[in-house]
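Support reply, case 0932

Customer input (verbatim):
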Amino acid sequence: MSNKKYIRGSKDSNLKKPILFKLYEKQIDFMSLFIKFKHEQGYDKLAYTRTDIMYEALQDFIGKNQNEFLNHASDKLKNEAEKLSIFNSK
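Our regenerated output:
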């Protein structure tokens, strides 16, 4: 993929979507199978969805990387993270 900037919502921004789905095709397929598995276990009423899986994955990502970020990022980036309430206060 080139280093071109894609403006969100532009015609060209849609070019990235097929590439991302191709790169992560197996992960997306497994996500769909896992949701079916959860529904087999009776999670229909809880509406276990891809959004839940993405939330869990992103929370894991934050948990694994927040200490490095907080220890080494510039004050400007730390302030930006604080304004966005990214990290839970302990």
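We compared this against your earlier run and they match. Two observations from our side: Residues 31 and 50 are 7 Å apart (CA to CA). The longest helix spans residues 50-72. Please reopen the case if you see a mismatch on your end.
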